[in-house]
């Protein structure tokens, strides 16, 4: 069990924002790290670059300090042999001195001018912060672990370091076990007659009607006029979608004062007609290049007025019709509104406005590279959590429904880093959605897509997935699921395969009741229709029963969902 720590409104496991006076023990006993808790002096450790390193002890805790740093990479290091095809989880506890709130990155040098970042943390002074991440390597190699920071004036303290290898088989096994635990529930059905006597050898057919887990794909306005696109999309059993561009400010108000939501309205009608939930994307985009042309030249006062009008218009128009809004898109990488409004917490203010206009819809942050890239210090999980805290601490925002949106635009996946980052974010207890999943085109595109989908679906914190593959005749943004004749590409085959495997496509389970009338199975969460057939029963196959399979509440200590079916007593 991981220790839980309470921190300013969020409940974090040791991997969130909590900063401890004493670090925890190294995970997995340190794995393949030599002397992970520095109990044996500096055995196994050496300096990297030109730093000076010292072994120190404080309050029964031993650690290593790298000081007198002149280069970003000056620190402590250890050489380790990494094997191709293994997946490595990494963790360490970090503290800094002569500075505070400083990003520190764990990096592996894997060859001449070749480096792999395993993860980063915003380290603090006088307490220990948990750095959690991971890596894989393209070839077996003797690598060198070290820690780096752009702030060369700080001292870097390191303790409880762990590097644990897993085989691909072990990693996949964990995914399967987690899916069984968090996406499925054991179901126990008993069939009896009107007298309460068990009916044995009855055929029980359980058909899923509505899966609970939202998995879908983005669409664009082409779907309104292309029947091939419509037929392919609606036959996939997607349950959620996002409009690629049609709700964005530059689409709905291309010229100042002339709003046009007609295309977005038509797309929303299409979605509703096909029982698709819709995520609103987006109210604002913090990237300067994606502002409506006329917004860029507005004064601070006029921009504030235009932003208020935009938010009230968009959020108010679709109130009660969407399951989510991406309120300020990519505000870790970009700061258009913060810079133009002369307001360092412009994002927090915009979320405040959104909560007031629609308090029932979950308002998401939406950012890229938080789980894709260990080397992007702007969007690492610790920075994401800082932004969440800034928004929640703004007056009036404490009770707002907030969500974590992760765009997930991948080149190649670092699954250990993905899992570690999701662990950190999930410790908030907020819903996490994969909002724009795609993979850069390469010979391994479909393979990587499957790996990523399996990883995120198996994580308990993920509450929904949207694939970013809206079709255009000239090509999708980065990844398509079909060709222009709407025949599946390998990526589309991956999606179909996994949806079938995860019970998201007309899942039907058939079994027989035993001598005591019982039948048990494990079902994915969702709504089901149950039919009973038996040679001795008249027309019993026409009778149906409803069954809702949901996650079990741990406090009840139940091990399964039960359904008692009493069948008609009329016999042939």
Task: Walk me through what this model shows.
Helix content is 22%, strand content 33%. By secondary structure, the protein is α/β, with parallel strands linked by helices. It folds into three domains: 146 residues, Jelly Rolls, CATH 2.60.120; 78 residues, Immunoglobulin-like (Sandwich); 283 residues, TIM Barrel (Alpha-Beta Barrel). Strand 17, helix 5 and strand 18 form a beta-alpha-beta unit. The radius of gyration is 27 Å and the shape is globular.
Key words describing this protein structure:
Jelly Rolls; hydrolase; 11 helices; TIM Barrel; 572 residues; alpha/beta; polysaccharide degradation; 28 strands; Immunoglobulin-like; disordered N terminus; 9-stranded parallel beta sheet
CATH architecture of the largest domain: Alpha-Beta Barrel
**What percent strand?**
25-35%
**End-to-end Cα distance:** 57 Å
Taken together, the total number of domains comes to: 3
In the CATH hierarchy, the third-tier topology of the largest domain is known as: TIM Barrel
Average of the residue pLDDT scores = 92
Q: Structural class given helices, strands, pairing?
A: alpha/beta
Our Rg estimate from Cα atoms comes to: 27 Å
Please describe the biggest sheet, giving its number of strands, its sense, and whether it closes into a barrel: 9 strands, parallel
Helix content: 10-25%
Number of helices: 11
Q: What is the count of β-strands?
A: 28
Write down the oligomeric state.
single chain
Q: CATH superfamily membership of the largest domain, which one? A: Glycosidases
């Amino acid at each position: 069990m991981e220790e839980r720590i309470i921190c300013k409104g969020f409940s974090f496991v040791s991997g969130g924002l909590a900063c401890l006076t004493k670090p925890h023990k190294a995970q997995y006993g340190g794995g393949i790290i030599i002397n992970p808790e520095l109990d044996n002096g500096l055995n196994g450790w050496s300096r990297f670059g030109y730093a000076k390193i010292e072994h120190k002890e404080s309050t029964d805790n031993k650690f290593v300090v790298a000081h007198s740093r002149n280069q970003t990479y000056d620190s402590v290091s250890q050489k380790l042999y990494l094997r191709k095809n293994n997946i490595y989880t990494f963790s360490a506890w970090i503290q800094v001195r002569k500075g505070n709130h400083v990003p520190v990155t764990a990096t592996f040098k894997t060859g001449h001018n070749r480096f792999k970042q395993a993860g980063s943390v915003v380290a603090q002074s006088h307490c220990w912060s948990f750095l959690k991440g991971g890596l894989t390597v393209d070839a077996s190699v003797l690598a060198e672990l070290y820690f780096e920071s752009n702030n060369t004036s700080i001292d870097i303290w390191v303790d409880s370091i762990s590097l644990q290898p897993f085989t691909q088989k072990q990693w996949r096994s964990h995914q399967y076990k987690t899916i069984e635990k968090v996406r499925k529930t054991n179901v126990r059905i008993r069939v009896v007659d009107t007298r309460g006597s068990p009916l044995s050898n009855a055929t029980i057919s359980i058909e899923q009607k509505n899966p609970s887990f939202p998995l879908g794909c983005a669409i664009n306005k082409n779907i309104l006029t292309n029947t091939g696109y419509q037929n392919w999309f609606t036959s996939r059993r997607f349950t959620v979608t996002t409009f690629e561009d049609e709700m964005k400010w530059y689409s709905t108000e291309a010229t100042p004062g002339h709003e046009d939501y007609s295309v977005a309205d038509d797309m929303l009608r299409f979605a509703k007609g096909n029982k698709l939930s819709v995520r609103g994307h987006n109210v604002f985009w913090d990237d300067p290049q994606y502002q409506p042309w006329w917004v860029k030249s507005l004064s601070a006062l006029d921009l504030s007025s235009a932003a208020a009008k935009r938010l009230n218009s968009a959020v108010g128009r679709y109130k009660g019709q969407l399951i989510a809004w991406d309120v300020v898109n990519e505000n870790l990488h970009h700061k258009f509104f913060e810079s133009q409004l002369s307001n360092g917490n412009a994002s927090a203010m915009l979320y405040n406005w959104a909560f007031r206009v629609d308090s029932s819809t979950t308002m998401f942050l939406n950012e890229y590279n938080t789980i894709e890239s260990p080397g992007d210090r702007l969007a690492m999980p610790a920075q994401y959590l800082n932004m969440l805290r800034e928004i929640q601490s703004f007056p009036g925002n404490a009770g707002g429904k907030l969500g974590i949106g992760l765009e997930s635009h991948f080149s190649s996946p670092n699954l250990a880093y993905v899992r570690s980052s999701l662990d950190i974010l999930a410790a908030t207890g907020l819903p996490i959605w994969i909002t724009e999943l795609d993979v850069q085109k390469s010979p391994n595109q479909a393979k990587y897509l499957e790996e990523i989908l399996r990883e995120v679906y198996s994580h308990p914190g993920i509450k929904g997935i949207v694939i970013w593959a809206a079709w255009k005749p000239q090509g999708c943004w980065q990844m398509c699921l079909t060709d222009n004749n709407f025949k599946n590409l390998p990526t589309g085959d991956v999606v179909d395969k996994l949806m079938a495997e995860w019970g998201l496509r007309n899942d039907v389970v058939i079994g027989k009741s035993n001598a005591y009338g019982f039948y048990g199975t494990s079902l994915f969460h969702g709504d089901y229709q149950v039919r009973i057939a038996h040679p001795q029963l008249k027309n019993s196959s026409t009778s149906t029963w409803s069954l809702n399979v949901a996650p079990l509440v741990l406090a009840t200590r139940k091990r399964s969902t039960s359904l008692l079916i009493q069948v008609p007593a009329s016999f042939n």
